[in-house]
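Page 37, continued from 36.
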C-alpha cells in the first residue's frame, strides 16, 4: 500500500458558508496501480488529488503516504515529500515560459540537489523517452500543447517518484493529442509506475487498473 485515506474530509470556510469538498473519503492506492478519478466538475476529484499529493492536508481524517501521516507534517516536510516522491502533471502544463524544455525538466533534479551534469544527462534521456529530443532547446511557446504536456510528463519523472498525479492531463488538448498522452501514461503504468489521474471523460479510462467514481465529495462505488 502506497497511500491510505481514512474518513477524509476537506472543508473550506466556516459556519453557514462552509463548503465540504470531500466528505468521509476512504481510499487506498497500491503500488503499481493506475487509478482514474472520474466525475463531473465540482465532484471533489481535484481536492482529493491535492490531498494525495500533499499539496493540501485534510480538515478531518488521515492521509497516510508510505507510512507517514501528511496531516502531521510541517510545510518543509510536505515540500520535501512532493519533490522527492510525487510527480505532478497539470492540465495547464505549468512550465516556466522563460526556460527551454530541457531546463524545465532539469528543475526538480536541481532542487533535489543533483549535480548539473547529471541533471542535464537525465533530462535529455527523459525527453528522448517522450519523443522530444529534437525539441529540447525550444521554449514552451515554441511547442504545441501536446508537446508541452510531454515535457511536463518528463519533468514529473525527473526524481523517479513513487506516485504520478495527473489532473485533467488532456483537458487542453485535442482528441488526437489527448490519446497520445493517455497512451504514454499507460506505458508508464505498464513499466511499473503508480498513477492517479483525474478526468471527467470516461473514454480516457480505458485499460486503467481501477475507476473511482466521485460525486458531491463522496465515492460512489467501493474504491478500496
Amino acid at each position: 500500500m502506497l497511500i491510505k485515506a481514512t474518513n477524509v474530509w476537506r472543508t473550506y470556510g466556516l459556519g453557514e458558508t462552509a463548503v465540504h469538498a470531500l466528505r468521509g473519503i476512504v481510499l487506498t492506492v497500491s503500488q503499481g496501480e493506475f487509478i482514474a478519478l472520474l466525475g463531473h466538475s465540482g465532484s471533489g476529484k481535484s481536492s482529493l488529488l491535492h490531498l494525495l499529493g500533499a499539496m493540501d492536508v485534510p480538515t478531518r481524517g488521515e492521509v497516510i503516504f508510505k507510512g507517514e501521516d501528511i496531516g502531521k507534517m510541517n510545510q518543509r516536510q510536505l515540500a520535501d515529500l512532493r519533490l522527492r516522491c510525487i510527480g505532478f502533471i497539470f492540465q495547464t502544463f505549468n512550465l516556466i515560459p522563460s526556460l527551454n524544455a530541457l531546463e524545465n525538466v532539469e528543475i526538480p533534479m536541481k532542487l533535489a540537489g543533483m549535480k548539473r551534469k547529471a541533471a542535464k544527462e537525465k533530462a535529455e534521456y527523459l525527453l528522448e523517452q517522450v519523443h522530444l529530443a529534437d525539441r529540447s532547446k525550444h521554449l514552451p511557446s515554441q511547442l504545441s500543447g501536446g508537446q508541452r504536456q510531454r515535457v511536463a510528463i518528463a519533468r514529473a519523472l525527473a526524481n523517479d517518484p513513487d506516485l504520478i498525479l495527473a489532473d485533467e492531463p488532456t483537458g487542453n488538448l485535442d482528441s488526437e493529442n489527448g490519446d497520445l498522452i493517455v497512451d504514454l501514461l499507460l506505458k508508464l503504468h505498464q513499466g511499473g509506475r503508480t498513477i492517479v489521474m483525474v478526468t471527467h471523460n470516461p473514454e480516457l479510462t480505458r485499460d486503467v487498473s481501477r475507476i473511482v467514481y466521485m460525486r458531491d465529495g463522496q465515492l460512489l462505488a467501493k474504491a478500496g
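The chain has a mean pLDDT of 94. Flag for discussion at group meeting. The CA atoms of residues 12 and 194 lie 29 Å apart.
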